[in-house]
Each structure stands twice: as C-alpha cells, then as structure tokens.
Design a protein that fits this description.
180 residues, alpha+beta, OB fold (Dihydrolipoamide Acetyltransferase, E2P), Ribosomal Protein L30, Chain: A, 2 domains, 8-stranded antiparallel sheet, 35% strand
Length: 180
C-alpha cells in the first residue's frame, strides 16, 4: 500500500517511534517508515482522517532555503513597521507557526527584544527565515523605507511532505510502507 492510497480514510495511530508509524486502517495494521523525518506531533490512539500534503505552511521551513536578513536603517514609524512585519509573516504561516520563530534564535540569545532593539537602532540582524517569508518581509521593509542586506537570497526548494491524522502530524522526505 502506498501512503497516498489512504488519503481521506479514517485511520488510527496504533504505535510510533522515531523512525516509523503504525496505522490501523480497516482493522489492519500498516507500518510506514519515515525517511528523513524533520518534525512530528503524534499521540498513540489518535483517530481521524488521514491527509498528505506537499504544500502547507508547516512545510515552508523545510522546503525552502533559509535566508538571513540584516537591517541597515530605521523605519519611519516603528510601531507600524512591527505590526506590518508580523502580519506579513502570519499571512504566509497562517497561524501554524509563530512569527517570532523567524526573528529569534535561542542558541545565540537573539530574542524578540534584540529584534526590536535592532529595528529601533536601524542596524543588526533582522531575521532568519525561509525564502518566501523573507521576500514578504523585504516588501514590508521597502514600504517603510528600511534598507536591508540579505544572504542566501535565491530560492532553493526541497520536497518534504506532511501527513495529518486529525491534529497529529509528521513532516518527512518520504513515508515508505515497511514490508516484513
């Protein structure tokens, strides 16, 4: 059975580990191995409609290259800029990820406050975000007369997939049925 064959069927999460998922479909168990799994949120026993996506806001972080953007001038109106910036990101992520994911980095203590201070001073790192989010953010910067410098600003795409079972999900390169 191919994973796409169960699109829109009601399934139940029977079991899972880091590398595979076992689904109960029509009282039969099927195991699917994750190839290059990136993210998951699964709960044993979850029952719901199965769906698979090749495009979805959750996939942007994996299917597009990350672009680093620096700010080189201040916006004319700080508060309006921040609201427009947040809205631009939310328009693409559709609420699936917080806009702050792209303007913070816990590894180097780059917080929302650091982001806001960089905007106020008109200098420093603005964000690290997927290509499409960066393009939208640059339009906001242009609208507010904020000069930017980007690194890695050419689109490179990948083809990760997303499966949903109710509100449970897995993002991986591929979901391959395991043959015993």
């Amino acid at each position: 059975m191919n994973i796409t064959d169960i699109q829109n069927k009601t399934v139940q999460v029977d079991n899972y580990q880091a590398t595979f998922l076992t689904l109960k479909i029509d009282d039969q168990l099927f195991r699917f191995d994750f190839i290059d799994k990136k993210e998951f949120n699964l709960k044993k026993g979850t029952r719901g409609q199965f769906s698979i996506y090749e495009t979805h806001p959750l996939l942007i972080d994996y299917n597009e290259n990350i672009v680093t953007t620096y700010i080189n001038s201040k916006p004319d109106h700080f508060d309006n800029f921040v609201v427009d910036f947040e809205n631009a990101i939310n328009e693409i992520t559709e609420g699936w990820r917080s806009w702050t994911n792209y303007v913070t980095d816990n590894n180097i203590n780059f917080t929302v406050d650091t982001f806001l201070n960089n905007i106020k001073s008109g200098t420093g790192k603005l964000m690290e975000a997927p290509f499409s989010i960066t393009q939208k953010a640059i339009k906001v910067c242009d609208k507010h007369n904020v000069a930017t410098k980007t690194f890695g600003n050419e689109l490179k795409q990948d083809n990760f997939k997303l499966i949903f079972i109710a509100d449970n999900y897995v993002i991986a390169k591929e979901f391959r049925q395991h043959n015993n």
